[in-house]
Design a protein that fits this description.
The chain has about 250 residues and is an alpha+beta fold. The chain folds into 2 domains: about 110 residues, no CATH class; about 120 residues, Alpha-Beta Plaits (2-Layer Sandwich), CATH 3.30.70. It is about 30% helix and about 40% strand. It is built from 5 helices and 13 strands. It has a 10-stranded antiparallel beta sheet with strand order 3-4-5-6-2-7-13-12-9-8. The radius of gyration is 19 Å and the shape is elongated. The chain starts with a helix and ends in a 7-residue tail after the last strand. This is YwmB family TATA-box binding protein. Pfam families: DUF1779.
Amino acid sequence: MLKAGMIQKGMIAILILGTVLVLAGWRYGSLQTARYDVREADTALRSLLTVSDQVPGSLSKLVVKWQGDWAANDGNPAVMAAQIADRLKLPAVNKLVENGHAVYRSVHNTQDLKIRLHVMERQPRQWYVFVQLESSNAGRMHLIRLHKLCAELLKSAGVQAQWNTAVQRSLRSDKTVSQLMVLTEESLAKNLSMQSRERYTDATTEAVSYEAPELPLSVQSGEHQVHVQMAVHENEVEKDTRITLGFPLITIEY
């Protein structure tokens, strides 16, 4: 029970760190506002996946999250949500009411690809749009195409959109978490200039945030920027090790 508690605290600590940094303000360079170039979003994701391919293990999960504010003005949120769902080939949106606010939602799940669309009312005529793409290795290329399509759709709809991505790789190894962290850092450092900024360690997990100016996404943390966060976690249930990278932060459970 003690070890399980420590694991849970470790995951909570990393997610809290991510939340704090998000609240401090995303800084996405040329992707900071809805005036981003669609080609830049596509190129940036491909470059980040090239970096993650240098990490040991096989790709088990790839997640891209698009999110941002939308001012209704003369637009109809139901129509906007339906149009995005149609272009992403999702089921018809369902309207729900949560905590007194309208939510338009559509979800599509297959073995290789999962898509979630939420268009949520924050206050009168102010909405929040969230699209999550998740794939296994088999759905990787499809997800990349959908990522580019999301960039086009959200820009066209006037959503002030930002995005982040997380990659999870799995392997079986007799090396410790610390040893795998060092090996992974050495592998990435061959082609990337990295400087550690924050670090968390417990019995089964080591997580580090890095400044790596060559990478396209970043978030401000204190007096420096974070471009990538990495966690190596020993999964005692599955008897394997998961290496998770978040660009710029880990926003999924590791």
